[in-house]
Amino acid sequence: MSVQPTVPLPRPADRPDADVVIYDGDCGICTAQVSKLPWWDCRGKLAYLSLHDPEVRERFPDLPHERMMEEMVIVDRHGNRHWGPAAIRYLTGRLRRLWWAAPVLYFPGSMLVWRPLYRWIARNRYRLSASSCDSGACQLHLK
């Protein structure tokens, strides 16, 4: 029932040494933003999984489903977990084309702004996605 990006995203099997971006594949906003990452990832450093994919539980049984429903997570190639706004911050250092965003995200004290903003968007993502949600998953999560 996941919202499918127009071009299939590379999976961990396709890029075994890549960082794994775990996102909400039922969320239109989430899927739309994640589907843009391959352009920023010109060196193929990322692989992708929807948190609803059974492979997430197989590969990362320690990741709590409830938390993944609240914020995206990136599991880097060393096994470190980067959650929510820290994941976005991590991408600015990992993806060469995003270098310009790093100063804003790494500015001292800026996480005091980014955390609540990220949480608000994450909490309201199905409401914000509802008009572009063809699969009905958004309505399911709004109940």
TrEMBL record:
Q: Kindly list the residue ranges recorded as spanning the membrane.
A: 98-118
Q: Report whether ATP-binding shows up as a keyword of the record.
A: no
InterPro entries linked: DCC1-like, DCC1_Trx
Q: Which UniProt keywords apply?
A: Membrane, Transmembrane, Transmembrane helix
Q: Does the keyword Transmembrane apply?
A: yes
Q: Can you name one GO molecular function term for this protein?
A: protein-disulfide reductase activity
Q: Name one Pfam family in it.
A: DCC1-like
Q: What is this protein called?
A: Cell division inhibitor
Annotated source species:
Lacipirellula parvula
